[in-house]
């Protein structure tokens, strides 16, 4: 099998309208990407399937969409102002900044961003002779310092003094904690219950890189499951299994997934695991985190807000701060994983082709309708009739009459369209036995079969 490279994925994403560099006409903006016409459809399909699995298919799960801006004390309570930072060192020769924990990891030294500044400086000093500046190749770096990733805003500040800065969200899930009491009061949920959100987050990354893997603007899909204190183990394992199975159900190959347990837990966590995906050029790295956060988050917000956030058990009258089991995945990383996993190159009919073997539920175009020849009005008229009929029930239907039929197939293969429907002269009754039938071609195998027009809506169903 041909190797799947990051360069091939990026090229396909640009060529077929999946992903564009942000502000490209001005030279681009580091760590910012735009989802093109095909990309936004795939992204929306991923969100829809994720939402279905985590809200509609669950009991006692509630969706939420919180405002992007939060009261500044939110980020004090969550620890982001004091502890949301990455270790940075600067090349003294060319001023390129590197993220030290990642640079150490590349030479096999285990470090992470949660280490104290003194400890990571010690590790860095021990290994300076092995780390080169990625820009100029020198080995002359400044000491390591912690760089806070929160992005400041001047929302509501008309003085220009920035005395009480407001921040763009460093993570999306904080809105769930802020609305926890409102959900309890309005929905009267029974423990255990979940609150689910897809929201924006912003991080002033030192060195955004690797396409969608590390960006400065991202979307996070989060679930927070509230459970009774110390009744976390069984639910935690069930959540882990559900998330793993979800990826498999939508076509991710199991050989490209693995679990990794965190070696260093933050002080409040009971357990933390990542689902890692085998990304092109990166190897296995974090895609989704599943965390047992105990009662830390609500306890912090109760302390900083002065509002009682205890849950009252309606049957026993018991009051307690629930523990939280969290899942969190960056939609960009998820998108990148599904694109990478679906990318294929093969030889079909004596020609090399590229195609995306996307699950039909995720494909940005569900089917493409062709007239065999675009210069035959009777074929075009019938094909338009079929196209418009299907579009009523399946909006993601594409019309394509540009070029010969082989080129049309190749274009649809590259965007992952599961089936192509061709209207030919037999459809019109040239062969009476085949009147009102069409040719349906399968993306993955290239095999073709004839079906009646009336069967198409159910087939795409």
Largest sheet: 7 strands, mixed
Please, what is the average pLDDT?
93
* Widest β-sheet, arrangement of strands: 3-9-10-16-13-12-11
**Beta-strand level of the residues, as a percent range?**
25-35%
CATH class of the largest domain: Alpha Beta
Any idea what the CATH superfamily of the largest domain is called?
A: Bira Bifunctional Protein, Domain 2
Number of strands: 23
Regions with little confidence, pLDDT below 50 for 5+ residues: none
**Separation of termini?**
32 Å
CATH topology value of the largest domain: BirA Bifunctional Protein, domain 2
What is the approximate shape?
A: globular
Characterise the protein shown here:
The chain is of the alpha+beta class and 461 residues long. The chain has 2 domains: 6-70 and 173-339, Bira Bifunctional Protein, Domain 2 (BirA Bifunctional Protein, domain 2, 2-Layer Sandwich), CATH 3.30.930.10; 365-460, Rossmann fold (3-Layer(aba) Sandwich), CATH 3.40.50.800. The protein contains 14 helices and 23 strands. The strands form 7 sheets. It has a 7-stranded mixed sheet, with helices on both faces. A 5-stranded mixed sheet has the order 20-19-21-22-23, sandwiched between helices. Strands 5-4-6 form a 3-stranded antiparallel sheet. The radius of gyration is 26 Å and the shape is globular. It starts with 5 loop residues before the first helix and ends with a helix.
């Amino acid at each position: 099998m041909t190797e799947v490279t990051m360069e091939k994925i990026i090229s396909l994403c640009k060529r077929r309208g999946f992903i564009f560099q942000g502000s490209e006409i001005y030279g681009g903006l580091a760590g910012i990407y735009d989802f093109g016409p095909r990309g936004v459809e795939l992204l929306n399909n991923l969100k829809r399937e994720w939402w279905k699995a985590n809200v509609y298919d669950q009991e006692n799960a509630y969706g939420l969409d919180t405002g992007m801006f939060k009261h500044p004390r939110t980020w004090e309570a969550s620890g982001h102002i004091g502890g949301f930072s990455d270790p940075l060192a600067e090349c003294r020769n060319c001023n390129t900044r590197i993220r030290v924990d990642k640079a150490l990891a590349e030479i096999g030294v285990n470090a992470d961003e949660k280490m104290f500044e003194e400890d990571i400086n010690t590790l860095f000093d021990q290994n300076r002779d092995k780390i080169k500046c990625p820009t100029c190749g020198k080995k002359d770096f400044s000491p390591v310092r912690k760089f806070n990733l929160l992005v400041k805003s001047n929302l509501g500040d008309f003085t220009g003094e920035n005395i009480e800065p407001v921040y763009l969200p460093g993570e999306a899930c904080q809105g769930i904690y802020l609305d926890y009491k409102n959900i309890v009061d309005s929905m009267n949920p029974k423990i255990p219950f979940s609150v689910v959100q897809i929201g924006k987050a912003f991080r002033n990354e030192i060195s955004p890189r690797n396409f969608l893997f590390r960006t400065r603007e991202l979307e996070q899909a989060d679930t927070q499951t509230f459970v009774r204190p110390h009744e976390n183990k069984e639910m935690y394992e069930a959540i882990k299994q559900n998330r793993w199975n979800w990826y498999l159900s939508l076509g991710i190959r199991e050989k490209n997934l693995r679990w990794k347990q965190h070696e260093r837990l933050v002080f409040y966590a009971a357990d933390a695991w990542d689902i890692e995906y085998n990304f092109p050029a990166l190897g296995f790295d974090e895609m989704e985190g599943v965390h047992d956060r105990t009662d830390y988050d609500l306890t912090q917000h109760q302390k900083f807000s002065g509002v009682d956030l205890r849950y009252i058990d309606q049957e026993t009258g018991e009051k307690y701060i629930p523990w939280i089991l969290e899942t969190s995945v960056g939609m960009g990383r998820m998108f990148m994983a599904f694109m990478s996993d679906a990318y294929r190159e093969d030889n079909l009919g004596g020609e090399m082709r590229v195609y995306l073997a996307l699950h039909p539920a995720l494909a940005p175009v569900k089917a493409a309708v062709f007239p065999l020849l675009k210069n035959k009005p009777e074929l075009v008229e019938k094909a338009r009739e079929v196209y418009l009929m299907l579009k009523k029930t399946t909006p993601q239907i594409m019309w394509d009459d540009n070029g010969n039929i082989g080129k049309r197939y190749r274009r649809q293969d590259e965007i992952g369209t599961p089936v192509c429907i061709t209207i030919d002269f037999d459809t019109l009754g040239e062969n009476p036995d085949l009147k009102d039938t069409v040719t349906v071609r399968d993306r993955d195998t290239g095999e073709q079969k004839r079906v009646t027009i009336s069967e198409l809506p159910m087939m795409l169903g």
